[in-house]
Structures are given as C-alpha cells and as structure tokens.
UniProtKB/TrEMBL annotation:
Protein name as annotated: Glycopeptide antibiotics resistance protein
Organism of provenance: Glutamicibacter protophormiae
Residue ranges of every copy of the VanZ-like domain listed in the record: 50-186
Transmembrane annotation, as ranges: 6-29, 41-61, 105-125, 132-158, 170-193, 214-238, 250-269, 299-316, 328-347
Keyword Membrane part of the UniProt annotation: yes
Length: 367
C-alpha cells in the first residue's frame, strides 16, 4: 500500500510547490488572455498541475540509486508483444479462478493504468475543449513518451532501463484516456470547463478599480522578484563553476536596477504606457482627466515615483545584499510606500501619490 500512497504524496507536494512558485504567473497569463480571473480556470489549472506531477511520480519514481543499479540480465526487459496481458489474465484465471483473478496484481496493474489515464481524457475534453479523438491522441502520445523514457533509462541518464517498457501500456493507457473523455461529458465534470468568453482584446473596457490596480502591482512585484532571483542564482552558479567573481556591491545595485528597468520603466515608455503587470491587467497610464495615453516622460516619471521606484528601493535594501552605508534607505522607502498606499486608497481613481505628483491616471487599454 505504501508503494501506492507515497507517489501520491510526492505529487501533492510537487504540485503545491509548483503552484506556489508559478501560480501568480499563471494568473497573470490568465488575466492577460481573458481579461479577468476565473475560479474555474484556476481550479482546473491546479488540477492539471496535480495530475501532471502524479503521472510523473507514478510512472518514473522511485529512481535508482546509481546509474548501473539495474544493469543485470533479466531486469526491466521490454515487453513488446501486444495484448500479452490477456494471456496473463488467462493464466491467473486457470490457476486461481475468478476470485483469484479479481484480487490479483496482474489485473489491478492494468486497471490502475486505465484509471491513471482517465483524468487526461477528462482534462482533454473539459480543460482543452477537445473531443474523444483529441483525448485518444494525447493519451497515446503521453503513454509513448513515458514508455520511451523508461526504455531508454530516462534518455541515457541511467545506463540501463529501470522500469519495464510495455507495449500493452500503450493500449490500456490510451483506452484509459478514451474512457475519461467519454465520461467527461457527464454534468458532474462541468465545473472543469471555464466560461466561454471572447479574447480579452475583444472584450469591452471595464473600470480600473483599486483591486485591479493592486493585482497589477502584484504581477509586477512577482516578475521583479523572480527575475532578480534567477539572475542572482546565475551569477552565483557562474562563480561556483570558476567564472569571474562579481563585486557583491555592484550586484546589489545593478541587478535590481536592470530588472526594474525592463519590468517597469521601459514598458512604461513604450507605446501602451504600462508596466508588464499593468499590461497583463489591461491598464495604461493616461492624463489625469482623460483616456488618452500619457506622454512618455510623464509615464516614466510616474513609474520612477511610484511602485517601480518603491520596488527598486525594496530590492536594493532587502534583496541580494544589505547596504551598510545607507541604513536610512530602507526606512525612507517604507515611509514613502506607506504614504503612496494611503493616497492609493483615499484618492479617487486609484491614482496614488505618484499619480498626484505627475498629473496622471489610469484607464482600460481597450478604451
């Protein structure tokens, strides 16, 4: 039983970690594509992530301790005879009878493969809006990829195959996806289908609310944090591999500056007058009392005085390295952030302090 439970636990943990790291980016992509967030899209995406990790853990784990651990005669030999499982059923039935067959590992291994691929068929119909044929093709493709990965020892990562590549798995897995596609049409699975909506660019403009502005800031903050982390990790890895040692002080200043420039400032100066997060939320910077895009210098100045500048100071003081020469910098950034947040909440139009100082506002990009 433990061999059935622990891969599921690995799948749950892996999907939770994945959604914790990538969830906000998936939400940004969803908003950019559809112009709003949907709880059904979000739940189905989380379910797809859980299923993907489950498929991996049940078909690939546990991994061998060494590259040559399974390089022995008669171990993990490929089964290339189609429908061989029917002969196995007949042998078990002849030896143990119907009751023995019903409780045998031979039968339940096939049933488990079918059950394992049924969610793929359900997701193909409900999430991808495909049909039975789409589900069969996806089931066959996914099963073929798994069997080839097992047969090649994860494409040469291990010297020998450590799991049995079985042509019967292609048959039963594809049948499982087919069965899942058929039952996906039952009303019980309707919640997995996101609402049918036009693409975001075809939808009518909507008011720019405080919640929408805050969501755009969350997107920008996530993009910045992820980019700073990736660059810092790359710099550290290059040093570990014998590359040039970079002055930590320069890293502390230039990495946040470069990231904020590409996430906030450059997109604000470009046509559209919006940061990357604001573009995902279909917002643009305008003049204080109009829907026309603001001048480039106004949009850029607003970014510097607004959340872009606050994010830069935050990354500078708490990101890669502390700056002992300017202990007041963090306090100043915090005070300015609080003042900006108060203006954001109290001033109509979600203009914030930077909007007041630069005479700018926000409007839907489709207006």
């Amino acid at each position: 039983m433990n061999s059935m439970i622990w891969p599921g636990a690995v799948a749950i943990l892996g999907s939770l970690l994945f959604m914790g790291v990538a969830g906000i980016f998936l939400l940004a992509l969803q908003y950019r594509r559809h112009g709003r967030l949907s709880w059904r899209r979000t739940i189905t995406t989380a379910a797809a992530a859980l299923y993907g990790f489950g498929l991996f853990s049940y078909t690939m784990l546990p991994l061998p301790a060494t590259r040559d651990a399974f390089c022995r005669p008669g171990v993990a030999v490929a089964q290339l005879e189609p429908a061989h499982f029917l002969a196995d059923f007949a042998n078990v039935y002849a030896q143990l009878g119907l009751r023995g067959l019903a409780t045998s590992f031979t039968l339940w291994q096939v049933l488990f493969n079918i059950i394992l691929f049924m969610p793929l068929g359900i997701l193909a119909v409900r999430w991808l809006r495909g049909n039975v044929f789409t589900a069969m093709v996806l089931g066959l493709a996914a099963s073929l990829a798994i069997e080839l990965t097992q047969y090649t020892g994860i494409w040469g990562l291990y010297t020998c195959a450590y799991r049995v590549a079985d042509v019967d798995d292609l048959i039963v897995n594809t049948f499982g996806a087919l069965l899942g596609a058929v039952i996906a049409y039952l009303p019980i699975f309707s919640f997995l289908s996101a609402p049918r909506e036009p693409r975001a660019e075809q939808a009518p403009p909507r008011p720019v609310t405080l919640a929408r502005r805050a969501l755009a800031d969350v997107f920008d903050s996530s993009f910045t944090g992820a980019a700073v982390f990736v660059i810092a990790a790359a710099v550290n890895l290059a040093e570990q591999l014998g590359g040039p040692v970079v002055d930590p002080g320069l890293v502390s200043i230039w990495v946040p500056a470069i990231v904020v420039f590409f996430v906030f400032l450059l997109p604000s100066l470009a046509p559209g007058r919006a940061t990357l997060g604001q573009r995902c939320a279909w917002i643009r910077v305008t003049g204080a009392r109009g829907r026309r895009a603001a001048a480039a210098w106004r949009a850029g100045l607003r970014t510097i005085l607004g959340f872009g500048g606050i994010t830069f100071l935050f990354q500078l003081t708490t990101g890669l390295n502390e700056i002992p020469d300017a202990p007041w910098l963090g306090t100043a950034a915090m005070l300015y952030a609080v003042a900006s947040a108060l203006c954001f909440v109290l001033i109509p139009g979600a203009r914030a302090l930077a909007g007041v100082l630069t005479g700018t506002g926000f409007a839907d990009r489709r207006a």
